[in-house]
Amino acid sequence: MINMRYFCSMFENQERTEIDQLGEFALIEHLTAKFQLENEGIIVPLGDDAAVFKSDENTVYSTDMLVEGIHFDLSYVPLKHLGYKAAVVNISDIAAMNARCRYLSLNIAISNRFSAEALEEFYAGFSLACERYKVTLIGGDTSASQSGMVISVSAIGYADEKRIARRNSAKENDLLIVSGDLGGAFMGLQVLEREKAVFVDNPEIQPDLEGNDYILERQLKPEARVDIVEMLEELGVVPTSMIDISDGLASECHHIAKQSEVGIAIYEEKIPIDPMTHSRARDFELDPTTCALNGGEDYELLFTVKQEDWDKIKGNPNMTAIGHITDKNSGLQLITQSGNSHPIEAQGWNHFSSEDEG
Amino acid sequence: MINMRYFCSMFENQERTEIDQLGEFALIEHLTAKFQLENEGIIVPLGDDAAVFKSDENTVYSTDMLVEGIHFDLSYVPLKHLGYKAAVVNISDIAAMNARCRYLSLNIAISNRFSAEALEEFYAGFSLACERYKVTLIGGDTSASQSGMVISVSAIGYADEKRIARRNSAKENDLLIVSGDLGGAFMGLQVLEREKAVFVDNPEIQPDLEGNDYILERQLKPEARVDIVEMLEELGVVPTSMIDISDGLASECHHIAKQSEVGIAIYEEKIPIDPMTHSRARDFELDPTTCALNGGEDYELLFTVKQEDWDKIKGNPNMTAIGHITDKNSGLQLITQSGNSHPIEAQGWNHFSSEDEG
Predict the structure, then answer these.
(1) Which residue in chain B has the smallest CA separation from A108?
(2) How far is it, in rounded angstroms, from Cα A203 to Cα A201?
(3) pTM score
(4) Of A43, A238, B198, B293, whose CB has the highest number of CB atoms within 10 Å?
(5) Which residues, including other chains, have CB under 8 Å from residue B96's CB and lie 6 or more apart?
């Protein structure tokens, strides 16, 4: 459940301690104190020049940056949710290799607009995700910035080499499977943007978020599908390729198609869309399929399996077959209910295209 | 040698391609194309959700953020040097555990003030350091920012568990050793700041950097002392504690003293200071010892060894014994040439203390 008290009032009515009152080293010690930093693999925990920990044979490593004003808008994203999401999107990248995340590091640069309490909120969310996903914090840096907030997270995980699923190994006739449902995070964002616009026009009006819990949670508190990685292992299935849906189904399909040198056919009617996503898309006069194809941040897993593995997956409520791999020359095609075929354009984010120097 | 053509003119007279002309994915592909991305340990190189690589038993991991206007000033730091330094400071953190860096990742957020060519310069420097230190790039993200440049680098290395040197294990009577010489990077910064001030007053005057090569290089193109890590192994010495000098000798001594619960005595006359550092400090009416104690960014290694290991190190021109570990109650003391004892204050950077929202 989204905590509405944060909405549009994050910097009001809160206790405020200036970050420089604490000093840099004390601040980092304070913020990391609540983390569960010990686990059996840790030889040197954070607080030294580097952390040292036991490693399995194959390290899976990913890193990602989130920039205020580009990737998130603090006028409607509570800092605690942002902290949770910053951890989850990186855990999701490790899951997208069919691997398990074990360690995270967190660097933040923030301006003095933020209080120590605000930073604590962010860390509380990050810490919650670490607990939830059984991941240990092994490092990080907190620095001043001249303006805004920049977050950089790295994730370290492990996998058996035989189970690793890349983007470049989908084969013709493989089935295309997606976990969960799509487009919800995007519709949640539309609701938040609408209420922000109302608030900017008239700060007296309270945001109307009633009845949108599911899609708001999809946007503000996404989860990484580590359960799918576990299920696939239990089912004895190794995906022939895999990616997580951060930029949108269309964009991720383009990555798999390009790197695997294949084409993909998706059946429109098979794309899983939650009724709330569908209904809200109609309210906004948007096409639900377009929302599912191009709305990012669902953090579901998109993967391909051999036809012969279908029997192991069939009927699993967490996974939906939405299409199959075709030959390279066929490109990416959406097959509509009426049987027509339309090429799918990738409309992933180009963060550089519309931003101006602040 | 510092390339003076960059000085104060980095954004002039250069070919300029807007970053958004390339698009985000194409940009990252373009920038990483020149890196040596294959090595025998790499199973999945960058370009997937995560990289996968072979791991030794003990992973040594460190991460660090560099923020424009806080950690660097692009009016006199050439982007190629900045790229080189961003890699080196992280390689140095791994060396400070008495370990060897094998992989780096690089995240950058930049505003549209920067051209694709400027970003290429930065990457060229980073790539040069990767080649020089035989380190493989395993990941990274390039994002827009609303203003300025933020760099986040992570480093992964390996070490035999028995050779790892922490900060918390110095023992009374151990000798305190430092590599190279100190204060040079700080004096280089003073020269750059002076010439920047002259330039701001009168842009017609060319910067006068003659005769300052060594200290400018200490500031703009520091090296990580991986050679010391190798030497210590060849000499059969495991330091009882170790740290790299990023914030200044005094600050690093405080870290060792605090974490090891010991005191430290440093002999002023033993602190290695290059003649150019000494001479320039006098020109600026600064005390050379204070520059060596509190001027950071030398990236030398500071470590302690057992007395019985002294014979193995004695006479090595790369290492100087500057003091010894005392009991906790003695605190940190500087012993002057006349034999007087003065407490050493830590004056490390507090980046939060003097910055305003831009």
Answers:
(1) B65
(2) 7
(3) 0.91
(4) B293
(5) A49, A50, B165, B242, B243, B244, B301
